[in-house]
Amino acid sequence: MNFPPKLVENAIEEISKLPGIGKKTALRLVLHLLRQEESSTDNLTDALKDLRTGVKYCDTCHIISDTSDCTCRTVKRNLTTICVVEDTPDVLAIENTAQYRGLYHVLGGVISPIEGIGPADVNIDSLINRIKSSEPKIEEVILALNPTMEGDTTAFYITRKLKEYGVKITSIARGIPIGGELEYADEVTLGRSIMTRTTYEQ
């Protein structure tokens, strides 16, 4: 008999593809699932299927949502400010600070020539289109990108592209450590970074 059995090995292989999960952790998770009631595994399977079929991306700001009630269509927010972030976890991190009530724009990545990711591979064109056609007029764009080389490259590119539209461009204060990620910043530091944002300098 082969050990682990092929079905267990297949499950381990798939689970270990998730970020931050190695083969040992995947094995523990598989064994845990096998000890649970079958209904528990069924619920997890159904939730994952619903996740893939039900979650959508807003065509305007690219935030994930399961309804059409996106933040970019909520009149209670400040419609003249857009905060540009790399991905959805950054939106959640900033929202948890309760310091920002404007709109968001999710790039879905950053420019990284080393990895072959150029400006056309992230949601920069749709950001420019929002600035051009927005009503009321967008007055400020906050660049809340991770303070990495790729984040700075992306911020520089966006700043160059938006120059002709006369919009104020700011960046969050560098309370976020160089090389750090917004998703893992504590709420106080991130909140202060939003509140003390500065004009972005090339």
What report would you give on this structure?
With 202 residues, the protein is an alpha/beta fold. It has two domains: 49 residues, Helicase, Ruva Protein, domain 3; 136 residues, Dna Topoisomerase Vi A Subunit, Chain: A, domain 2. Helix content is 40%, strand content 13%. β5, α6 and β6 form a beta-alpha-beta unit. α1 crosses α2. The longest helix is centred in the first third of the chain and has 17 residues. It is elongated and about 65 Å long. The mean pLDDT is 86.
How is this fold's topology laid out?
Blueprint: H1 6-15, H2 23-35, H3 38-54, E1 56-57, E2 64-65, E3 78-85, H4 88-95, E4 102-106, H5 125-133, E5 140-143, H6 149-162, E6 168-171, H7 187-195, E7 198-199
Parallel strand pairs: 3-4, 3-5, 5-6
Antiparallel strand pairs: 1-2, 6-7
Q: Which value, in Å, is the CA radius of gyration?
A: 20 Å
Global geometry: elongated
Query: What structural class should be given to the helix and strand makeup?
Result: alpha/beta
Quote the average pLDDT: 86
State the end-to-end distance: 63 Å
Number of strands: 7
According to CATH, the fold-level topology of the largest domain is Dna Topoisomerase Vi A Subunit, Chain: A, domain 2
Give the helix proportion (percent range). Answer: 25-40%
Give the SSE string.
Answer: HHHEEEHEHEHEHE
CATH class of the largest domain reads Alpha Beta
Uncertain segments = none
Strand order of the largest sheet: 4-3-5-6-7
What's the structural domain tally? 2
Oligomer: single chain
* Number of H- or I-type helical stretches: 7
Strand content: 5-15%
The major beta sheet can be summarized as: 5 strands, mixed
- CATH architectural designation of the largest domain: 3-Layer(aba) Sandwich
